[in-house]
Amino acid sequence: MSKDQPAPLPGQSDKIVQVENLSKKYGDNIAVNGISFTLNKGEVFAFLGPNGAGKTTTVEILECLRNPTGGQAKVLGYDVSKRSDQAEIRKRIGVLPQDFNAIDRLTVRENINYFGAMFKHQLDADKLIELVDLKDKRDEQFKKLSGGLKQRVGLAVSLVNDPDVVFLDEPTTGLDPRARRDVWGVVERLRSQGKTVFLTTHYMDEAEYLADIVSIIDHGQIIASGTPDQLIDTHGGKKTLIIRDAGQEGLKQLPQGLPKAELRNAGDIAISLNNGELTSILMSLGQTPLHDKEIEVRRPTLDDVFLNLTGRRVSEEGN
Ligand SMILES: Nc1ncnc2c1ncn2[C@@H]1O[C@H](COP(=O)(O)OP(=O)(O)OP(=O)(O)O)[C@@H](O)[C@H]1O
Ligand SMILES: [Mg+2]
Question: What sign does the CA torsion over 147, 151, 156, 160 have?
């Protein structure tokens, strides 16, 4: 920023979250170790990492629930470490904690109004119920809802004060695939309304699908950041050409001079592609009996990014 331009006043910055060299120690355990990142207005940011990486610790510092032991963090331009700023932050953010629970005996609508009453301004409960697609369950007691529907109540509650940024800590963990998709739908709706979302997740597909920007955190440190495409291009490795159901026989039919091919799963042949090789390989396959097989090009995913950066897969760690 140039010297002539004054810094924006707290509450008016387009930098919704600014974190610099942030650390948190619990005794000797360094949970968050000198991380830096920025979240801009209107972005969906995914903080992606395995169990114990430091995601919740970071989010809870941003929510003013924990004090950092080093570095700086600002939310909406307000300093999380300043007591006088904390009240402003709490008023203006929305929170879905990792272990969200509402009040069992209250209905969906009653719960939203109950949590809304803690704020000076509250959005209309019925509008929120519509946003999270719970119209049919409006008068159902919270305790009778499935896990996925409970999470959607949590999303509605996190939005009740019309926050400038909403923090969702692992909003889909433990949900079945259908319920996860439904939660993704709500996040997409928030994005289309221009909301700023800070999401933590250990699901690679979730980050890839929902996020504009992803920061990968591992052992308290950010090991890579960027758009999903940037991360995949930089760290994902090569694309793979898959020839479906070709089996051992297919391996023998491959033309000479191809890059190394291997057999996978139920007899699929996988060939690692260098840039610019695809067309010539397809043309040479066309001359072989393999030309009538189903052929697909698989792009690396964030799973491959994590594997290449750490040597591990998240799924190996009990997530
Ligand atoms: N209150 C606490 N006291 C001591 N250690 C803690 C505390 N909370 C977290 N930790 C430790 O800090 C590290 C980071 O934990 P954190 O909960 O932030 O990770 P996470 O990425 O949210 O993990 P998960 O995916 O399991 O939710 C872990 O080693 C954890 O055991
Ligand atoms: Mg956590």
Answer: positive
Domain that holds residue 159: 15-234
Residue whose CA is closest, atom 12 of ligand 1?
31
State the distance from the centre of ligand 1 to the C-alpha of 51, rounded, in angstroms.
Answer: 8
Q: What is the pLDDT of residues 265-283, one digit of tens each?
A: 889 999 999 888 889 899 9
Which residue stretches of the chain are H helix? 55-62, 83-92, 108-116, 125-131, 147-158, 177-192, 204-210, 228-235, 247-253, 278-286, 302-310
CA-nearest residue for atom 16, ligand 1, is 54
Does ligand 1 lie within 6 Å of residue 57's CB atom? yes
Which residue, by CA, sits nearest to atom 17 of ligand 1?
A: 56
| pTM of full prediction above 0.85 | yes
Residue 140 and residue 31 in one domain: yes
Instruction: Please report how many Cα atoms fall inside a 13 Å half-sphere around the Cα of residue 104, on the Cβ side.
Output: 1
